[in-house]
């Protein structure tokens, strides 16, 4: 692996503290005629303070090392096919997973507006490179912890589309038997440890899962190299659980990767306005772990960073903080009219669609033909259509399921003296006085 890339994961001493000027330019300035082409790692858009002791070149090698490594390997790809970032099989797998996520979410929008789904539904469109780039490198035994934007994480981890769609429909055939819904996907078989509606609450769960892996290997002497990946957004990085768990994970060298899906907006609040220092990746070195920034709109760059971070965790070298700068193409949820973001900003990121970028890479490097990709798209359309038919035809949960999985011992509330669930009493819904 090129030295330039490895430097992103080197000793925290390499990645020193950086001070940003208070009058920094925003990542996207609507007053300019053309949107910027650079990300947080660019020294052009995010200039360093004149008082910093770290040169811009050192900062660049630390922050965008992954992007530079990809560029370097791309420049050598013409010499030999073996220098390509992925094989044909890997490329088709990545493309299929990303297309599945996009088509599934588009179908969710249709079903929501038709009244098939209820509550809040948060879609993942535009961020597929992050989910696919990390999760498709994991084993089934590895754990994933998600947020309320969790449908695509579940699909990438292998949860069947029909199970996810049924859960969204509130049906008994869903992965949580209809009791979780959009924001609480969970699947024990695939080690999807849940979507969490409140930001930050999934990070301690992920840290506990990583501790379990370390305990099994070092205390129980089991052959366990399982890792955990915790996904969360930029807004979560202002919450206490984030810092507490970074500290604990670094202190105990836990096999966990903290993945920040920085889509630049926390509901309607710009990340640049909400955070005193918007460069998230450097919070990793502050706690003694590598911090890396990567273009989250490029699945190949994300995949390269993920390989190194997951490898470190498996080798027992501890956690990594990865900031993936991405963008959601839809509003915060399907109830959000998305009127706060500048149209020019949205157009800029739409032009960097991660699926189109991967498709271009595959065809230009002769890894796949248009026919190959069309076949995948047709297959996914059929999978999603079948998932909707299955969910629509599935039964709703019985009333007897209402109090299941609420209490560890339901006898104190959910089961009456006759041994039957109290919710089966016809008067149960009249009010709590009857219970």
UniProtKB/TrEMBL annotation:
Cleaved signal peptide residues: none
Keyword terms, alphabetized: Oxidoreductase, Pyruvate, Thiamine pyrophosphate
Cofactor names: thiamine diphosphate
One of the GO BP terms on file: pyruvate decarboxylation to acetyl-CoA
Listed Pfam families: E1_dh
Domain (Dehydrogenase E1 component): residue spans on this chain: 97-397
Enzymatic reactions: N(6)-[(R)-lipoyl]-L-lysyl-[protein] + pyruvate + H(+) = N(6)-[(R)-S(8)-acetyldihydrolipoyl]-L-lysyl-[protein] + CO2
Enzyme Commission code(s) on record: 1.2.4.1
GO terms of molecular function: pyruvate dehydrogenase (acetyl-transferring) activity
Enzyme class: oxidoreductase
InterPro entries noted in UniProt: DH_E1, PDH_E1_Alpha_Subunit, Pyrv_DH_E1_asu_subgrp-y, THDP-binding
Subunit-level organization: Tetramer of 2 alpha and 2 beta subunits.
Function: The pyruvate dehydrogenase complex catalyzes the overall conversion of pyruvate to acetyl-CoA and CO(2). It contains multiple copies of three enzymatic components: pyruvate dehydrogenase (E1), dihydrolipoamide acetyltransferase (E2) and lipoamide dehydrogenase (E3).
Name of the molecule in the record: Pyruvate dehydrogenase E1 component subunit alpha
Organism: Carnegiea gigantea
């Amino acid at each position: 692996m090129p030295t330039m890339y490895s430097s992103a994961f080197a000793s925290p001493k390499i990645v020193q503290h950086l001070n940003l000027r208070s009058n920094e330019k925003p990542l996207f300035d609507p007053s300019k005629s053309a949107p910027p082409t650079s990300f947080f790692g660019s020294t052009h858009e995010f200039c360093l303070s004149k008082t910093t002791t770290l040169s811009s070149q050192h900062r660049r090698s630390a922050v965008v090392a992954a992007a530079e490594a990809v560029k370097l390997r791309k420049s050598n790809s013409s010499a030999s096919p073996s220098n390509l970032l992925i094989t044909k099989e890997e490329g088709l797998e990545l493309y299929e997973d990303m297309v599945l996520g996009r088509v599934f979410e588009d179908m969710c929008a249709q079903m929501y507006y038709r009244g098939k789904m209820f509550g809040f539904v948060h879609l993942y469109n535009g961020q597929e490179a992050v989910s696919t780039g990390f999760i498709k490198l994991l084993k089934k035994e590895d754990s994933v912890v998600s947020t309320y934007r969790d449908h695509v994480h579940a699909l990438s981890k292998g949860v069947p589309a029909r199970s996810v769609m049924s859960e969204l429909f509130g049906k008994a055939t869903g992965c949580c038997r209809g009791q979780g819904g959009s924001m609480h996907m969970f699947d024990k078989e695939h080690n999807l440890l849940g979507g969490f509606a409140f930001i930050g609450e999934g990070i301690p769960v992920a840290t506990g899962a990583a501790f379990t892996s370390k305990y099994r290997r070092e205390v129980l002497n089991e052959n366990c190299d399982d890792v955990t990946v915790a996904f969360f957004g930029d807004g979560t990085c202002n919450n206490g659980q984030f810092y507490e768990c970074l500290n604990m994970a670094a202190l105990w060298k836990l096999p966990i990767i903290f993945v920040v899906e920085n889509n630049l907006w926390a509901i309607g609040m710009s990340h640049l306005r909400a955070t005193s220092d918007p460069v998230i990746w450097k919070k990793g070195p502050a706690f003694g772990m590598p911090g890396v920034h990567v273009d989250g709109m490029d699945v190949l760059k994300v995949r390269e960073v993920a390989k190194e971070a997951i490898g470190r965790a498996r080798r027992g070298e501890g956690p990594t903080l990865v900031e993936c700068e991405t963008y959601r193409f839809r509003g915060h949820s399907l109830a959000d009219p998305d009127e706060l973001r500048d149209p020019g900003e949205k157009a800029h990121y739409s032009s960097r669609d991660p699926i189109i970028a991967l498709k271009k890479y595959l065809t230009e490097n002769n890894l796949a033909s248009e026919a190959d990709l069309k076949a995948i798209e047709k297959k996914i359309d059929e999978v999603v259509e079948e998932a909707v038919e299955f969910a629509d035809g599935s039964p709703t949960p019985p009333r007897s399921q209402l109090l299941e999985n609420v209490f560890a011992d339901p006898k104190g509330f959910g089961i009456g003296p006759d041994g039957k669930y109290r919710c089966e009493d016809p008067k149960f819904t009249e009010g709590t006085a009857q219970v």
